[in-house]
Design goal:
The chain has about 150 residues and is of the alpha+beta class. The protein is about 35% helix and about 20% strand.
């Protein structure tokens, strides 16, 4: 069984759509016997291809009505500055993703808040107070026609 095996790709596609699918239903969808399907899923888990399962949350039901991606530039490109920034955003519950990037900015954040006033508070009281932050560019999410993150 190789990583680019077509059957494994089908299994991963189905599990991405529904991580709670029964082994029997999964086997039917990918054209395997239940025992062969289970062996493949267990092997994908053992190899770390399947790193875990999670619930897909409804942002509106959780009170999240505002989502933005934020590009953050740092004025100092030292390990100390990066680690300090990363510790600060790890403590901020509004930050649900933080990615260290290459290019014109150092970080790309995904921020989820109740509304625009809550985002303004985060922008001012959290990001605006961090040392070494020299630029903040916000991209407000207006819709997500494709989002496979789960």
């Amino acid at each position: 069984m190789t990583e680019d095996d077509a059957t494994n790709r089908k299994i991963l596609q189905e599990l991405t759509r529904d991580g709670r699918i029964s082994n029997l239903a999964l086997a039917e969808r990918v054209g395997l016997s239940p025992s062969a399907c289970l062996r493949r899923v267990q092997e994908l888990e053992r190899r770390g291809v399947i790193a875990g399962y999670r619930a897909v949350l409804s942002r509106p039901a959780m009170g999240v009505g505002f989502i933005a991606y934020i590009g953050v530039g740092l004025g100092e490109h030292s390990k100390r500055a990066q680690e300090g920034f990363e510790r600060a955003v790890a403590r901020a519950p509004e930050v649900v993703e933080c990615h260290n990037t290459t290019g014109t900015i150092e970080y790309l954040l995904r921020v989820e808040c109740a509304d625009l006033p809550a985002y303004k508070t985060f922008h001012t009281d959290v990001l605006g107070t961090l040392p070494h932050v020299t630029s903040i560019t916000s991209y407000v999410v207006m819709g997500s026609p494709k989002d496979l993150r789960g």
